Amino acid sequence: MKRVLIFFMLFLFVKIAFAQVVYSPDKHLRLSFVLKEGGKPVYELNYKGKKVIEESKMGFILNDFLSFSENFSVIRTENTSSDTIWKPVWGENSEIRDNYNEMLLFLVHRTTNWKVNIRFRLFNDGLGFRYEFPTQKELRHFIIKEELTEFNLTGNHKTFWIPADYDTNEFPITTSHLSEIDALIENVRKEPLAAKAPSPNVAVQTPLMLKTNDNLYVNIHEAALMNYSAMFLNVDGKSFSLSAHLAPDKNGNKVYFQTGNITPWRTIIVSDDARDILASNLILNLNEPCDFEDTSWIKPMKYLGVWWEYFIGGGSSWAYTDFKDIIIGKTDYSKLLSNGHHGANTSHVKKYIDFASKNGFDAVLVEGWNEGWEDNVAYHKEKIYSFTKPYPDFDVKELQNYAQSKGVKIIMHHETTSSVIDYERQLHKAFKFMVDNGYNSVKTGYVGPIIPRSEYHDGQWMVNHYNYVVKMASEYKIMVNSHEAVRPTGLCRTFPNWIAQESARGTEFESFNGNHPDHTTILPFTRLKGGPMDYTPGIFQGDLSVYGSNKAKLSTTLTKQLALYVTMYSPLQMAADLIENYERFPDAFQFIKDVAVDWDKTYILEAEPGDYVTIARKAKNKNEWFVGGITDENSREAHIDFSFLPPGKTYEVIIYADAKDAHWQTNPQSYVISKKKVNNVKTMKIWLAPSGGFAMSIKEK
Amino acid sequence: MKRVLIFFMLFLFVKIAFAQVVYSPDKHLRLSFVLKEGGKPVYELNYKGKKVIEESKMGFILNDFLSFSENFSVIRTENTSSDTIWKPVWGENSEIRDNYNEMLLFLVHRTTNWKVNIRFRLFNDGLGFRYEFPTQKELRHFIIKEELTEFNLTGNHKTFWIPADYDTNEFPITTSHLSEIDALIENVRKEPLAAKAPSPNVAVQTPLMLKTNDNLYVNIHEAALMNYSAMFLNVDGKSFSLSAHLAPDKNGNKVYFQTGNITPWRTIIVSDDARDILASNLILNLNEPCDFEDTSWIKPMKYLGVWWEYFIGGGSSWAYTDFKDIIIGKTDYSKLLSNGHHGANTSHVKKYIDFASKNGFDAVLVEGWNEGWEDNVAYHKEKIYSFTKPYPDFDVKELQNYAQSKGVKIIMHHETTSSVIDYERQLHKAFKFMVDNGYNSVKTGYVGPIIPRSEYHDGQWMVNHYNYVVKMASEYKIMVNSHEAVRPTGLCRTFPNWIAQESARGTEFESFNGNHPDHTTILPFTRLKGGPMDYTPGIFQGDLSVYGSNKAKLSTTLTKQLALYVTMYSPLQMAADLIENYERFPDAFQFIKDVAVDWDKTYILEAEPGDYVTIARKAKNKNEWFVGGITDENSREAHIDFSFLPPGKTYEVIIYADAKDAHWQTNPQSYVISKKKVNNVKTMKIWLAPSGGFAMSIKEK
């Protein structure tokens, strides 16, 4: 009887056919949602009268085969607006405006009576939407077999893409039309990487950057990825349709879901000006505010490290010994002979601490300090490392005291080789060890295939792991810089101790000749939309043959390396090269010493994905500005409009520019440093060499 | 050049054809090892001139397809003997003799030059052998795809078996000939259990008990299962061949192995007297000694519990509320209404503490004390329980104080619903919570399929997990009683805080009409060979219909329940029934109050698997003896020979026997208690009802 009544009520109140439209606050964007015949939810997105996303399906396949993308009715809708300002703990801007119009749709699936809500938020810079499964009587636990959300594009756009792979995001970026991906993808997938699990079909990773033939810029990603698997995008190169492709576990399930939870936001940033894509805070805005009681312990920082020496072919090693039959907990390292070229030894680290202290750096990263590296590519082994036992030649207490006396922090390193369960087993003790020994930040690493063996790097389980580590770290007041983790989705707003991530092809690939000159002109449009990247720039000695057998050459000029400190936003910035190279170029090194790592305000001056990026930023709480500009393999002239400076004053600008004979391949270390006076009505032209760049530091005169 | 030299040396010293024989100290057992044509290792076992194991293959398939069971040479052998006595922390005997002849064979695989050793230990009561992979230059990490060890039997033996299943060992035991297993197994596998992963072929679990047509008793199991997966046995019902079948992970790999490690021992206990099988300490002897510095905190104990009430259909529930949309860490239980029949509430637990204190029990188990039980069968959910947050009506501090004032311990309960990773995440805090609140023992539970989702209950990964929990618990001086874990292999010698396990069909199945009258006459020959079982006997009210809708009836008489405290060895013994039932039968309850849980000496008086067991034991450090005897569905007369008592003294024996009209089905509560005088030259006959039993307590007069 009760059930009959409920059905009766549904027929009274439910709108079977349904359509509703929402506009962005500035009216440039229009989102329309329609429940089509058969109760099929679709959406469409327009920008300044042009279609951006054609009619696109929404929904899921649940459990084994339930089609949860039709037979819906809309029970009711709620429309709201919001316009607030919030202050991040650190960031590109010290204040961020969060201004949107929202539509929340309450849907019921007529065959099962299961309920789902869809929440759309329309900002001036784009759209976010997510699915919300409220707690309900008829449904509690289910499996998401597929998410069916589509992003149907309007044409054969220019696309900046890497192939979908559940275990890695370290591919080089390819620029092609959508229709060409199919023919190109297999070759790109041959890239040798430590763990690969390619999607079985043609699919790409997000953030995905697209440019239409009529010069619209579109960026598709997700925000607030928690307790869900990462989204890739299936590509239909004929219909230009993209659709969600969630990372599975090895049982083929995408997400284990309990009602009372939500999906991540699906995000579409849109503009006819590429600079707006870089300036957009949409993804941060869609993440939850930080609820830490105290954030005073979270501090942006610049660091050096015992790191690059492991890549350049100079012989330095993570491992302490050549003996490889290591059993953690049993092997007595004090009885093993050192191989004589172990990088993380006390006296070598002290040199880095000295140099860091002398040059105003906050910290020194030390990799290879702990037991286990001899057997570090044993991907089947669960207990590879101890995270509390240093090698015999790494004196934790002595280094703690020494670093403290010099006002420098040591950055902890936890390479897990993806033996994740063993890492979790050690986590509490590892963090306690850090606190006891004066460490307040950790670089984590996830090289190789995951243990538990049912999981991939980008699946729900690992997503939960990364978030768990960051949360746990916050309890110990530890900052985290995670490498080889799932790419970020703005969670650094919620967890500001997640100070940076790698999650893309970083500078280490320069040591394998692996980065193209346009690489860093694309990353700000793709990977960086999710959050800061520990790209580790600052390589001055780009020709690695000087060290030995490695013939790799850097893909940039020296000044482009400087510019990256401004163009590649991160509150954690490394000066990655060897001390001796900074000592050889003290004038250029001055910029790295000077440049800020936290900002009041950011100005995107010029930008075109794949071609160039020019950004100016005001240092946080200081009247200092820094500008960086980079170009791809083509030389260019940057145009700097100094109107970002406060009016009525004169400023001194130090300019680090490519010399006229500079060229990334033939003459990368040729640069000119000059000083000029500017004010806020001035403009300036600066020449950039092929794969060159420039940097500026500006102070009030 | 070096390699050539090594090959040359091999040809000099290696015996290509090879055969060697070892005898047990009493010469009754003969083990012969032969390297057959093609370098194939085989072994054979004889007992008093009769074959027990026919020529049987040894070896592996490694990595994808390498046959590691041929092309071997024997480099050398080492023969040793040992005869020692050791003292367990607790046990059936306070001293155990460990006496064996050993042969260690050093083998090299000629095609790969990989090395493996095989160690045979021949005891008077049987054989143990294992594979040892020494550290070596050519081999470090590999995968065991199959272990090929055979146990080729001599005929169509009577077999006491449960089907191979990677996720459960809670099947009823079937008695049949080997040749009949094939036809019977599918039906047995229909048994409804919370998680099942049947082997794809006909295979059975160990400990496997066999009886030959000429009355030899043979028991096959394993000892010291660490960092390896559990062994099942493939059954060829035509050739009577058994062969190792290791539990895989869901990727199909059996074991991830690093050289420098060993396999568990494969054990074959043999005798022409069934009592010797029960008396055998071979499996304990093959486990490593305990290396705990202090074991004084490990104490055998008798306990009551808030437990049986959840099974009898009386309405009591683990869950606090009827609200099921629980999200651990978010759901605020203080705002939820109690369902009114939550078992683990403070005042109810106090009643148990009072009763335990009054009757000399050591402890009270409380299940259902912690947040999460409402959603406890959500097998896909990772965060089901908190192990540190009690329900609002369970006052941890008040109960700690109350229990302490009464001299009683509370036993912690950690049901994981097999969300093992989440349990590990909470483990440190959960153990700390225990220590902080006065708990020194925990019952763990693994109902349902395992998370990580690549794993089964009996695979290497979970084996490591159980061992990890026990080791971690020892650091907190916590005793562990694990339920639904892999069956034990004598590791309680090494980790004596592993006080008991379930790992078989226990008393809880009596509440589903699930146990056959012969069940407990078989378990001592099978499951109990690996270690003590928390069988939870002591049910006096066997007809459950008195409570409500449950129509189940106990499969024993009341006195058989008493006998189980002696026949089912465990240093942890529960009196599982409700308080009110013990109050109804105070005279019978007296035996449970009196019976010891730790022993100086055990005497197996009568035994036949599937039919009857009679055991006498001397209480540890006391001149008290207890005798228990049980029978299957057939009544019988037990013959007690009191020669186990010290000579020259008179003893008073209290006898708890089935009354003449007792019958497990029709009159289970009919018993007679009598007192007699005995001495060590006396014998006695006692009648046991169908599925009946008797118990005796003996003191010096």
TrEMBL record, chains A, B:
Record key words, sorted: Calcium, Glycosidase, Hydrolase
Molecular function in Gene Ontology: carbohydrate binding; glucan 1,4-alpha-glucosidase activity
Keyword Calcium carried by entry: yes
Cofactors: Ca(2+)
Coiled-coil spans in chain: none
Keyword Coiled coil part of the UniProt annotation: no
Full protein name: Glucan 1,4-alpha-glucosidase SusB
Organism: Capnocytophaga cynodegmi
